[in-house]
Amino acid sequence: MADTLEFNEIYQEVKGSMNDGRLRLSRQGVIFKNSKTGKVDNIQASELAEGVWRRVALGHGLKLLTKNGHVYKYDGFRESEFDKLSDFFKAHYCLELAEKDLCVKGWNWGTVRFGGQLLSFDIGEQPVFEIPLSNVSQCTTGKNEVTLEFHQNDDAEVSLMEVRFYVPPTQEDGVDPVEAFAQNVLSKADVIQATGDAICIFRELQCLTPRGRYDIRIYPTFLHLHGKTFDYKIPYTTVLRLFLLPHKDQRQMFFVISLDPPIKQGQTRYHFLILLFSKDEDISLTLNMNEEEVEKRFEGRLTKNMSGSLYEMVSRVMKALVNRKITVPGNFQGHSGAQCITCSYKASSGLLYPLERGFIYVHKPPVHIRFDEISFVNFARGTTTTRSFDFEIETKQGTQYTFSSIEREEYGKLFDFVNAKKLNIKNRGLKEGMKQSYDEYADSDEDQHDAYLERMKEEGKIREENANDSSDGSGEETDSSFNPGEEDDDVAEEFDSNASASSSSGDGDSDREDKKPAKKAKIVKDRKPRKKQPESKKGKDPNAPKRPMSAYMLWLNASREKIKSDHPGISITDLSKKAGELWKAMSKEKKEEWDRKAEDARRDYEKAMKEYNVGSKADSHRGERSKKKKKKQEKQVKGKGDKKGTISKSSSSKSLAKGMSDSFKSKEFVSSDESSSAESKKEDSEEEGAASPPPSSEDSASGSD
């Protein structure tokens, strides 16, 4: 018998939604990998308590119960696979795969049994339906009645939102069956109740998605985002991944929390929670727990009193509570030394981070693409300009992501990164040795080492070594570690438009790519005169009236000197901020005074524009008439000039013949001086004829005679 069994296109039921994935059964246990999220469920063989085979809507299903009460359901099996699965369970798990059919009598009266995470409604020994208690969002009681409310399923067109159970009264004293029913449900339900005090609170954090400033309250089982308009409660069980990403300016940090299912606001779904921090912000944090509780709960990962950068404290607390590793950028380094690439996605500019196991784009909309779901990537020429290129990613599900407007200097770095990760590149084909070495059932978050932990250790060492150094010195040190001259050889070969400057020692691909930029340079050269054509349209008339200023700008111009005198040495930016505060605090009556002045200025501007437009129209008409008149005169002069030219030519030839007949000289007696003087006289006569006014009709008649 085979040691493993693998099944494709198996569906796992999680919170009412069916997630597609792959299932593998081995001696060690059962592994299911979700195709959509990449999340892996690993059930050890020693934890399995029961296996049930039954007929379901999608064919046949397998229900697994563990010793700690968890239930896993997998659908999509064929009936013929029962014997193979039954033998495998007997041989490797020492379990009997029981067949249990659901009751289809249609009765609405039965017995409720609570087992682990399931509520089972049975008629006799056969179950009618089962409700995973983790789907329950609220449980309320009434007289002889219990109402269960469920989480909304976004993937389904129709969702079950409420079920009511009638509980008959019993004769037992001291036990209320309705309360007992509700307590059994609430003990396993996914009901978020903000009972007790928060472990810690982070005030006024800047959040990019959803946008705004939020207070984050950390509770033992969930995260509470409290804003001015909206509140969100996020259970830690819905957190898939944590990312800590440095901004390209090296002064800010992104902290990204990936969620499944997402948080909802109306029809909007937020799959990512993105926080933005400044590296300069520090905080001293005290947990609302005693030291023994902190040590018992977090096992040294957190302490009661902590201090450091704000982003470090938030990421450290989240890592300890969610119990997931923090993903940071790997070894990739762009042309400018940053660990990200500036690009555009769906008409919004953002940053693309190549990670060790995928790509993530922040921030609008956020996108996370794992390497194991990528079919191929493609480098395409930019559609709008030759100084950039597009990076396209197509997944195995057929979804295509296009990241455009990437600077061409980043091409060499990104190409080397994709090549090193053995991703398929379109039009190059699958070369030998380029097959992806990813385990299809490995979790995309499982790394052999904790990159975040290593980075924190390195930063700690740098702080200790440079404790006495200034911040300027440390900045110079980090900048000097990037040497563009050594790392950008490929970029020069790929995109250098000067063929002589590029290296001639390369393979056929580089030679072929060297020829392409020459065409690009030619295109840019041809396009330059086109940009200069509409200069006359863009130029503004200096005589045109100036636009009127707003009420605020009028007040600011009048009050600028006063603000400077009240705050000597104030900078321009601080002056603008101060002026905004003063304007905001100004009374309504004073603002109305400046509004009236702005309205008067607007009227004057409109009046001046009307006069200007009338004058410009008259000028344009006069200009058109003068142009037409000038063209007409040029045509007349040209026609008369051609006529005069023919007349002068014929007259000159006749005079030459006449002169030759009057005084003939042999060729040997004509000196060079005489010939040159004759030629100069001839030229002078022609010039005089061209400059003289056209002859009258009488002259032309006599000349022809």
Structure description:
The chain is α+β, with helices and mostly antiparallel strands. Among the domains are: 96 residues, Roll (PH-domain like), CATH 2.30.29; 77 residues, PH-domain like, CATH 2.30.29.220; 128 residues, PH-domain like, CATH 2.30.29.150; 81 residues, PH-domain like (Roll). Helices cover 36% and strands 30% of the residues. The chain is built from 16 helices and 31 strands. A hairpin with a 6-residue loop joins strand 29 and strand 30. The protein starts with a strand and ends with a helix. The C terminus is likely disordered. It comes from Nesospiza acunhae. It is found in: Nucleus, Nucleolus; Nucleus; Chromosome. One of its GO terms (biological process) is regulation of chromatin organization. GO terms for molecular function: DNA binding; histone binding; nucleosome binding; RNA binding. Its main location: nucleus.
CATH architecture of the domain at 200-327: Roll
Terminus-to-terminus distance:
125 Å
CATH class of the domain at 200-327: Mainly Beta
The helical percent reads 25-40%
- Major sheet, described briefly? 8 strands, mixed
Could you give the count of β-strands? Answer: 31
Number of helices, counting only DSSP H or I runs of 4 residues or more? 16
Strand residue percentage? 25-35%
Strand order of the largest sheet: 4-3-2-1-7-6-5-8
The average pLDDT score comes to 75
The global form is: extended
CATH topology tier name of the domain at 200-327: PH-domain like
- The secondary-structure class comes to alpha+beta
Low-confidence segments, given as residue ranges, are 470-538, 646-705
Q: Radius of gyration, Cα only, in angstroms?
A: 42 Å
